[in-house]
Amino acid sequence: MSHPLDRFNYCPACGSKNWTEHNFKSKQCGDCGFVYYANPCSATAAFIVRASGGTHELLVVRRGKEPAKGTLDLPGGFIDMDETAEEGMLREIREETGLVLPSCRYLFTIPNRYEYSGMVIHTLDMFFRIDADSTAIAHAADDAADCYWLPLDAIDPNDFGLTSIRQAVSRFISER
Hints:
By secondary structure, the chain is mainly beta. It contains two helices and ten strands.
């Protein structure tokens, strides 16, 4: 596997070409000494559950963009700078589904590799649970091509295109 910073050939501090691997997650400039670490990006995903007609349903979205375009996903995305994980989670839900929810409960994390713009971005995906009102209505927006409620007992983790989401859905279903 290539170094996470292989596509970066010049020191971002001084512009030197003397920019080499320092360790498995960083590069260092041989001229000015600057060291840059490729730490994982923070991302979120939500298990939004509602009770409806005696069954429990999970809100799923269909990915409108690569990677894994057209496959199922959970509402979520990358956390912005100066945002808490919870703020980022609730913002992403609002952007992708139109739902305005008051809070979310942290469940667990799974490390992931997310291919974007020809690069592999290492992420730390944080999963949350939210219990929504039975009358909650969601609509697809932003990068979600579609969204709908699925009964929990009808969910197949293999329908989810991203590795960490598939793993999380399997874990969530087995622990419920």
